[in-house]
Design goal:
- By secondary structure, the protein is of the alpha/beta class.
- The chain has two domains: 238 residues, ATPase, nucleotide binding domain (Nucleotidyltransferase, domain 5, 2-Layer Sandwich), CATH 3.30.420; 227 residues, ATPase, nucleotide binding domain (Nucleotidyltransferase, domain 5).
- It is built from 19 helices and 21 strands.
- Helix 13 crosses helix 15 and helix 17 crosses helix 18.
- The radius of gyration is 22 Å and the shape is globular.
- The mean pLDDT is 96.
């Protein structure tokens, strides 16, 4: 067994970030968390921004902890983060203010104004990306329409993980998976959709080149090395910098008969394809196409995941009732099955607020008995999320023609055994859970491939499979699921008008 090679994964989420050491011993991967820190949008006078310099400072703290723990420099570093948000640099490479957060209200009403110039159907056919007002396209369009002076002096746009890569080594580029989240990248030409951007009025000059996953961008600059106490430089690697793409990269045995679920506060469910599906049918079914590792495409549906139940918990705690996940699950198991069903993606559940009242109101409006107890709320949320997975599975089978028989669940939600079993029952197929640390594992594995430690992604996924124990859940027949699927389908049909 060779001495373990060490890589550093910077894994940034919208609510927290962390710096992780990934160890590769020639056969298996293991992770060691070095530093974790809180993250979130900062509200100032009606705007919501990211404090990106604090994030950068926390990343440096993580590298200092790496030096204290291991002494020598790592074999590489890679960054994965959320999509759609970006920073702007001037001609001297200086950051033009704090990057705006996707929750900033500047994009309210902007998609409809963009569609007056380029139709929604035309944009989807070119980019394959579902319309969401948070997308980079609408953020930039809002700046154009407001005559934002930052656009006049901006020379380069960098997405959040690409901005951190620039801080490390000075390279100005956007990685493929992150570019695909912008709704400005054209899969067919493997370039920005320049014609569409001209029609919207977005300046092309600010968009750097797009590099593929696995590109070695630069080496870490001397300023960073000195700050963190590291003597030897090391490569900055463009991993699958969109965190969902890194998570999917980590899934062992992902094949043509499998779909993936990245499960947490939000869920993304989809399949890995060689090319995007940009049909009008895919748009009508609320699917989106984003880049995956190895130049693949991820055809996915965004689903509100455990957010609804998390907001219920926040309300209970605000009212003085504390409850942990074990207690919630026990209460859900004891509650009556299929008492009420909701659509997790309904507008009522999209924003923070009194989620207990939102769920009750939805149930009353749809002619159902509303939940009252903690167990009834939890059961409603778990069952409804499982049914949302069933609905997405049926749509994926329709769009791809694939005989999907296995769901591979990664992320924090894969540790919820009750939800995993319920998903198997609702979908009538096998569920395999793991890895939970999917984004960081995918990040590290792709660095190992980029530095020649592994021949390709397939070998990397096989090594991840050897590195952990996945849990398999077989579907139980049981009464009630067929009726519940029918109720859920009727709610979906009613929501479409």
């Amino acid at each position: 067994m060779q001495e373990a090679m060490k890589f550093v994964a910077v894994d940034l989420g919208a609510s927290s970030g962390r710096v992780v050491a990934g160890l590769w011993d020639g056969r298996r991967f293991s992770l060691e968390e070095l530093h974790r820190f809180g993250n979130g949008g900062v509200s100032v006078r009606g705007s919501v921004d990211w404090d990106v310099l604090r994030i950068w400072s926390e990343i440096q703290s993580g590298l200092m902890k790496y030096k204290a723990r291991f002494g020598d420099s790592p074999a590489g570093i890679g960054v994965d983060a959320w999509g759609v948000d970006f920073g702007l640099l001037d001609k001297r490479g200086r950051l033009l203010g704090n990057p705006s957060c996707y929750r900033d209200p500047r994009t309210n009403g902007i998609p409809e104004k963009v569609f007056a110039r380029v139709s929604e159907a035309e944009i989807f056919a070119a980019t394959g990306v579902q319309t969401m007002q948070i997308n980079t396209l609408y953020q930039l369009a809002s700046m154009v329409m407001a005559d934002d002076p930052k656009l006049d002096v901006a020379e380069t746009l960098l997405m959040i993980p690409d901005l951190v890569n620039y801080f490390f080594g000075g390279e100005k580029s956007v990685e493929y998976t992150e570019a695909s989240t912008t709704q400005m990248y054209r899969f067919g030409t493997k370039d920005w959709d320049r014609e569409m951007l001209r029609r919207v009025g977005i300046p092309e000059r600010i968009l750097p080149g797009v590099v593929m996953t696995g590109t070695v961008l630069s080496t870490v600059g001397r300023d960073v090395l000195d700050m963190c106490g590291l003597a030897r430089t090391f490569p900055v690697i463009a991993v699958a910098s969109h965190d969902t793409a890194s998570a999917v990269a980590s899934i062992p045995n992902l094949d043509g008969r499998s779909a993936f679920i990245s499960s947490g506060t939000w869920s993304l469910m989809g399949v890995e394809l060689d090319a995007p599906v940009t049909s009008e049918r895919a748009r009508a079914l609320n699917f989106t196409n984003e880049g995956g590792c190895g130049g693949s495409t991820l055809l996915m549906r965004n689903i509100t995941g455990l957010w609804i139940l998390q907001e219920c918990v926040r309300r209970w705690e605000k009212d003085g009732t504390r409850c942990g996940w074990d207690e919630l699950i026990a209460a859900a198991k004891a509650a009556e099955a299929f008492r009420s069903v909701i659509l997790p993606n309904a507008d009522e559940f999209g924003a923070p607020g009194n989620m207990l009242e939102a769920v009750r109101g939805y149930c009353w409006t749809s002619g159902q008995v509303a939940p009252e107890t903690m167990g009834e709320f939890a059961r409603c949320c778990f069952e409804s999320l499982s049914l949302a997975y069933w609905s997405a599975l049926e749509a994926l089978r329709d769009l791809t023609g694939r005989d999907i028989r296995t769901l591979r669940v990664v992320g924090g939600g894969c540790l919820n055994t009750f939800l995993c079993q319920m998903t198997a029952d609702a979908c009538g197929c096998e569920v395999v859970s793991g890895p939970a640390e999917a984004s960081a594992l995918g990040n590290v594995m792709l660095q190992a491939v980029a530095t020649g430690q592994l021949p390709d992604v397939a070998a990397g996924r096989a090594s991840i499979g050897e590195s952990l124990e996945c849990v398999t859940y077989e579907p139980h027949g049981g009464d009630g699921w067929a009726d519940a699927r029918g109720r859920y389908g009727r709610l979906e049909k009613a929501s479409r008008g």
